[in-house]
Write a structure and sequence with these properties.
The protein is an alpha/beta fold. Helix content is 34%, strand content 23%. The protein contains 10 helices and 12 strands. The strands form 3 sheets. It has a 6-stranded mixed sheet, with helices on both faces. Strands 4-3-6-7 form a 4-stranded antiparallel sheet, covered by helices on one side. The radius of gyration is 20 Å and the shape is globular. It starts with 11 loop residues before the first strand and ends in a 6-residue tail after the last helix.
């Protein structure tokens, strides 16, 4: 698959903290700084000393063999799990003690490995649910159907259709989410996450179950989302064509530890990464 390049592509440059971000983001506060992050489950260390900085408009990849701890990292960043140690900074704010709702309001949105839609609700209503942190009327106005309620509903309707149009799904707005084909459900989950108006979008295996044509379209749309909304995107993905095609910086996990960071070219030729995926060659 041909590598997708954006007009905004920028070389990775070092920061004072020895992290690397796209050059175009160097004058902006990083959207994410994870420092010495770790979590233990009983006597098992699932993630240990995880450090990562993501630039304001970077598309970053988090890869590694099955069981490496990738989804656990996403769960830490979104406070599904509270870290045993380390810190997470979002837009320069320490998220220590925050819960998932507070982190969402801070600007972090995500999708999941397994699709989590409200199947019996319409496509539009699923997107509107993603806008919960932007609703500006209270419970009583909603019950009384006041003018403020209808105004906000009209704004939400227009916004939902605008977001659905990213994937050309606006004509599906009234369909039940559960009736959509698998690929469309994947795309709807991304649209719902965008409804929260994030500054950092975490995509957990967005291409899972997609055919090559759908994956190629997804690549283009991830670039479009970044360029349109000027947000950072971090994805976990096993499709290396997708990862190498759109990611600027890649972090590789194995057994809960970071074993490599770099550009796609550096990661592809890194012997430690190759060994983690393919195993050590037996000596003759």
């Amino acid at each position: 698959m041909a590598k997708v390049r954006s007009k905004n592509e920028s070389p990775l440059v070092p920061m004072p903290s020895e992290a690397y971000i796209p050059q175009r983001d160097l004058d902006k506060l990083p959207v994410l700084e994870a420092r010495h992050l770790g979590i233990d489950f009983g006597g098992l260390t699932a993630v240990d000393d995880f450090n990562l900085v993501i630039g304001r408009t970077e598309i970053a990849g988090l890869i590694g063999p099955n069981g490496a701890g990738k989804t656990t990292v996403f769960n830490l960043l979104t406070k599904v799990y509270q870290p045993t140690r380390g810190s997470i900074m979002i837009d320069g704010r320490d998220t220590n003690g925050m819960n998932t709702v507070q982190v969402s309001k801070l600007g972090v949105a995500r999708t999941f490995q397994n699709i989590r839609l409200f199947n019996n609700l319409s496509v539009e209503d699923n997107v509107k649910l993603g806008m919960h942190n932007q609703i500006k009327y209270g419970m009583f106005r909603g019950i009384l159907r006041s003018p403020a309620y209808w105004k906000q509903e009209r704004i939400a309707h227009e916004r939902a259709l605008e977001l659905l149009s990213i994937f050309n799904m606006q004509d599906m707005a009234e369909k039940k989410a559960g009736s959509l084909p698998y690929g469309a459900q994947r795309r709807l989950e991304i649209v719902r996450a965008l409804g929260t108006n994030p500054s950092l979008l975490l995509l957990d295996e967005p291409a899972a179950g997609m055919n090559p044509s759908e994956t190629a379209e997804l690549m283009e749309n991830i670039m479009k989302i970044r360029d349109t909304f000027q947000i950072a995107i971090m994805l976990i993905e096993h499709d290396m064509n997708l990862v190498m095609g759109i990611c600027e910086g890649i972090c590789v996990l194995n057994f809960g530890k970071v074993i490599a960071k770099g550009t796609p070219e550096e990661i592809q030729s890194n012997p430690v990464v190759i060994e983690a995926y393919l195993g050590r060659k037996k000596e003759a």
